[in-house]
Each structure stands twice: as C-alpha cells, then as structure tokens.
Design a protein that fits this description.
Helices cover 42% and strands 10% of the residues. With 280 residues, it is α/β, with parallel strands linked by helices. The longest helix has 40 residues. The protein starts with 19 loop residues before the first helix and ends with a helix.
C-alpha cells in the first residue's frame, strides 16, 4: 500500500507525537483526510499524472485515462484563457502582462458534513492553494504576500454531490463571482449519470471548462472599462471655389462700402448747397 512507503516517525521523538508525513500517511491509509493534511498534487497519493488535481483515498474515483485527459484539457484551457496581471502589483516597469490561471481540482472522499459548509471549504481552499503553489513558476516559493491571484481550488464531494470553488481573491473568479456557474455545472454532473466515464470526472471536466471560460472572457475586478480615446477635432476644409466666391463677395462689399462712403462725402454737401441757393 502507498501508506507503507512513507517513513515512520523518528524514534527520538516523544511517544504520541507524529511527524506531518507520518500523520498524513496514517490518515490516507484510513481515508480520514483533513484540511491541514490534504496531500499535495505532487504526492503519489493524489495520482495527479502531473496535473493540478488530486484523487486520493484507497479507491480513486477517476481512472488513469480520465485523469490524463483532465490534465491535458486543463492545460489547453489554461493556455487559451490568459489573465491580465499587474494592476494589483503596482509595478511601474511591468504594469500589465498576461499570465496563466491555475485551477486545482481536489476530490474529497467521504468528507464529513461538519467540514462541508462554505466557510470551512473556503478556509481549506486557502490552505491547499498555498501548499500546492500552482503558479510557483511565476511567483516563486514560498508564496509571497503580494502577488497576482492567479489560482483557485475546485472541491468535489462525491458522496454528497456537492462542489465548491475557493479563491483567495475575486480579481478573476471566486465563489460569488463566476463561481456560481462553475459549481452549478460540477454539481449537476455529480448528480447525473454520464454517458461514459465516472461522475467525478464529468464534474471536474465541466467545472474546469466553466472556470477557464469565465476568467478568459471577463475583466479583472475593479478594472474600469477602457474608455474610447477622444477623437481629435477634424479640421474643416473649404473648397478653393468656395474660398474664391467668398473673397469676391468680400471685395464687392468693400467696393460697395467705398462707393457709399464717396456718395455721402460728395453728394450730400452738394445737395445742401443747391438747396440753400434756391432758398435765396
């Protein structure tokens, strides 16, 4: 069994104390997982086939072929639906850049109802997300305090037919922003009879597809729509013929005003002198 491959607790430790690895092995062997000891996708218990998923327990819910196909499909959706990072980092050098979004898929076998409420699953999502560090290639390790929130966790609870999306930020997706459709589709697949394959595989595939479609088509939270740049005022062009006509009209008005001025200057005094002679 896989649990037997893990080393036992060191002999120099006090009795009753177990290392984290030994405690996790004991819990995996008994199918009694907990939020603090949920295995990483890198661990053999997850059977992840190199993808960001975990199907633990004595009996996996997905076949090897299903996990391989889920990993390939997630990789394709991740490459096609990049998100824009940089706004939260306030980096003057690289203010905006595209980055993949990582969705981890975790199956919770025989999960107790006492830990199935939204608050508990949200808290567990933060723990597992930090432990998995799916975007380590971009942010390094350990997870920095300030980073682009490009990861989320999708939990599948096969026995209760429930699903939950956990994210540390609503910048790209979270339970209340885009997560409703993800959970709805995953839950519907868990409660239906698929034409082929397992219910958990169908739920994981449907939820991942919906999540990547949302992050690829929506704007980051708080990002104002890009305003259309103001168009510069277009110069008003007047045709040459119209310019000549207006110039000719202006010349005519000038000539007319000159004629009228000469008339007032010479005709009016002459009229007054002639009228005065007639009176004498």
């Amino acid at each position: 069994p896989q649990a037997a491959l893990r080393p036992a607790a060191p002999t120099h430790e006090p009795a009753g104390l177990l290392t984290v690895g030994a405690r996790r092995s004991a819990q995996v062997a008994s199918d009694a997982l907990s939020p603090m000891d949920y295995p990483s996708w890198r661990s053999p218990e997850c059977r992840s086939t190199g993808g960001f998923l975990c199907d633990p327990g004595q009996t996996p819910y997905m076949s090897d072929a299903e996990r391989v196909n889920l990993t390939r499909s997630s990789w394709t959706w991740r490459e096609r639906n990049l998100v824009e990072c940089g706004r939260l980092l306030n980096d003057p050098v690289d203010s905006r850049h595209l980055q993949p979004f990582f969705l981890g898929i975790a199956v919770l076998p025989e999960w107790p109802s006492s830990m199935s409420d939204p608050a508990s699953l949200e808290h567990m999502g933060q723990i597992v997300d930090a432990d998995w560090n799916m975007d380590q290639r971009y942010i390094g390790a350990p997870v920095p305090r300030l980073r682009c929130p490009t990861s989320a966790m999708l939990f599948l609870l096969p026995e209760s037919g429930q699903a939950f999306l956990s994210s540390g930020s609503c910048e790209f997706i979270c339970a209340s922003r885009g997560g409703e459709d993800v959970v709805r589709r995953a839950r519907a697949a868990l409660r239906s009879d698929p034409a082929s394959g397992s219910k958990v595989y169908a739920a994981a595939l449907a939820g991942a597809e919906a999540a990547y479609a949302f992050v690829g088509s929506s704007r980051p939270l708080g990002e104002a729509p890009t305003a259309e740049p103001a168009r510069p005022a277009q110069p008003i062009y007047i045709s040459e013929a119209l310019q000549r006509s207006l110039f000719a009209l202006a010349v005519c008005a000038l000539v007319g005003s000159l004629v009228l001025g000469l008339a007032v200057l010479f005709v009016v005094p002459y009229s007054r002198s002639k009228h005065g002679s007639a009176l004498e």
